[in-house]
Amino acid sequence: MINILFSGNEKVFDGVLTCMLSIVKRTTTTQPFCIYIMTMDVSHLKPEYTAVPDTQITYLEEILQEYNPDNRVIKLDVTEHYNKEFAKCPNEQCYCSPYTLLRLFADKIENMPDKLLYLDVDILFNRDITLLYDTDIEGYEYAAARDHYGKYTIHPNYINAGVLLFNMQEIKRTGLFEKARNLIKTKKLLFADQSAIYRSTSRKKMLPQRFNDQKFLHKHTVVRHFSKRLFYLPYPHTDNIKQWHVSKMLRVFGYEQFDDILYEYIYLKKKYEKEYCVGR
Predict the structure, then answer these.
(1) Which of 263, 262, 275, 267 is nearest to 58 (CA)?
(2) For the chain, how far is it from start to end, CA to CA, in angstroms?
(3) What's the rounded mean pLDDT across residues 206-217?
(4) Is the entire prediction scored with pTM above 0.90?
């Protein structure tokens, strides 16, 4: 079983769908996938901060099971954990959204697998996921690649938390997530959960950049992460182009490698809206 963790609200649907399609279309393994989606309702902060609806979970699982009937999509509502630990904490209004903090509860969920791959939703796999998932992390809390900008501006081994291969047994032994949660509750951090994980780490395994490429797409790239990046032309500026911004992504990056994924995404998104969103 290959175990994957996402987190977010209703708006992560496009990201989860495109990422999921890239995984099954680029992977030849016969192992089933179990996809966990952590979510919560904190609509008192913003009206759109509601939990992922069950219709999305059902639809994603239907798609995934077309590739293997043993594939699963499981919703984890951690609203209670969040309200108990992070309500009104210094990082509740962090640079992204409070949903980035949810992975820090993975040690509190019963029956979570010992090996768990956390992924941000703005990711597409260019090559087989087993190249990443089969990494030996015995004795490490997690494996991660360097942050493209942080390795220059913060520390040479500053990690990007968008791709994290967790060793849950080791994390529970060292108390990594507990230490990170305490930081979140007591100290305002520049990059919230990412900084908390980095500061709380006892032992991590550094991965080559091809497992979390935040700027380029090479032939050897396994994971292309569509995070916010700096552009120098026509003038220096930042932009946050995601893979589901299909027209803009193709216009700016000119990628053809993901055409099969994006064509199916467009079809399946329209199908979902027609079958599940009528009358909403």
Answers:
(1) 275
(2) 36
(3) 94
(4) yes
